[in-house]
Amino acid sequence: MATQPARNPFRPTFGVSPTILAGRDSLLHSFRLGLAEGPGSPFRALLISGSRGMGKTVLLNEFEDAAAGQGWITLRAYPDDSMVRTLVDSAIPEALQSLDGPQSKRMLSSVAIPGIATVTAIADPSKKDPIPTLVSRLRELATKLRNNGTGILITLDELQSADVSQLHILATAVQDLLRDDFDIALVAAGLPEGIDRLLQHEGTTFIRRAERITLTPVSITDSVQMFTDTTAEGGKQMDPEAAKIAAHISVGYPYLMQLTGSLAWAQSALDNTDTITTTQVNHVRDEVIRRMGMQVHEPSLHQVPDGELTILYAMAQLSEQGSAMQDPMVSTGDIAQLMNVKPNALSMQRKQLLTRGLVEVPKYGYLSFTLPYMREHLLNNPQHRPI
Ligand SMILES: Nc1ncnc2c1ncn2[C@@H]1O[C@H](COP(=O)(O)OP(=O)(O)O)[C@@H](O)[C@H]1O
Ligand SMILES: [Mg+2]
Q1: Which CATH number applies to 220-297?
Q2: Which of 170, 203, 226, 311 is the least buried, fewest Cβ under 10 Å from its Cβ?
Q3: pLDDT digits (tens, 9 = 90+) for 243-293
Q4: Ligand 1 test: best mutation among 48, 229, 255, most atoms within 8 Å of CB?
Q5: Which CATH number fits domain 303-384: 4.10.520.10, 1.10.3130.10, 3.30.450.40, 1.10.10.10?
C-alpha cells in the first residue's frame, strides 16, 4: 500500500516536456556535435517533421537546452507575419542586453523641450544602421558571441503556419551569416504535409536543403524503459509486463505514451497500489483510445467535408481489427467498391485527405491512417458518419 499520495509523473499535455525523454538520445547527440563542429556542419540547418503528438515541440525544447548548455543563445521565431520584426525589435535586442549583463544598461538621454513633454530617446551606441535589419542585428549578436566561442540558435515551431516571405528573409539572413563563418543554427519543426506545401514555394530553397529529420515512433524497448523510469521517478513501480503492455498500447507515439502512463498511474492511485499492474494498464486501454479521440482525432476531423469523411469511414470499416502499431492499409479500389463509385472518382478527396495529414500512402494504390486509433475513433463514433 502506498503510504503517501505521489504525484503523477506522466505529462499528457502538448508542448510540455516529459519527465523522461524516450528515444531521442542519438538526435540530441548529433545536434550537440553539430554545434561543436562548426559552421560547416549539416546539423546547423534542421527541419524536424512529424505528426501532431510525435514530440516536435519537446525536441525543439531539448535542442534549446542543449544549445544553452554549450553557451549558445536561443532566439525563438514565431510563425506569424511579424516574425522578422519581433526578432529585430525585441528578441535580438533582449539577447544583446542579456549579454551585456544587468549592470550595463542602455544609455538613456532625456531632452526637455519647453512646452512639450519630455522626450526620451534610447541611444544605443552599437547601432550604426538607423534601420537595423535582421542581418545586421544577427551579425551584431553573433560577433559578440564569437568572442565567447558560442553562437545563435534560432528555433521555429509550427513551421507549416509560417509566412513564406518572412521565412525567406529569415533563411537568407541565416545563410548570410553562415557564409561568413558565424556560428548560427536554424531548427524548424512542423507537420509533414504543411512543410511539403511550404517548401514548394520559391524562396524556401535554403530550408529545402536543410537536413530533414522525420520523427518516427519510439521503439518498444525505449518505450518500455520510459514507462519503467517515469513511474520510478514518481515514486511507484510498474510491473515489467505492465510496462510492455503500456508500450504496445501507445505504439511508440509519444503523446499516447504519456496518456497511457498517466491513466495507468491514476488507476493505481484509485486502487491504492504502489505497483502499477497489468490489470490496471489493460483497464485503461479504452479510456486511452477515447481520450486520443477527443484530444487529437475529433479536432482534426472538424473541418473535413462529408465526401472525405465517407472515405475515412470506409477505410475504418475495411481495415481489419489488428495491432494498432501498423494500421492495416486499405486499397483505394476496395474503398471505391464499398462506396459504389469508380476509383478515380475519389482522387480529389484522397488528395485532400493526404494534404490534411489524415491518411498516408504506405504503398501505391493503398491508404492508411496517419495516427493510431483513428479507426477505433471512427468506429466508436458512427453518429458523425455522413451516410
Ligand atoms: N521523446 C519523448 N518521450 C516521452 N514523451 C514525449 C517525448 N516527446 C514528446 N513527449 C510527450 O508527448 C506529448 C506531445 O509532445 P509535443 O512535443 O507537444 O508533440 P508535437 O509538438 O509533435 O505535437 C507531450 O505530452 C510530451 O510530453
Ligand atoms: Mg508542437
Answers
A1: 1.10.8
A2: 203
A3: 999 999 999 999 999 999 999 999 999 999 999 999 999 999 999 999 999
A4: 255
A5: 1.10.10.10
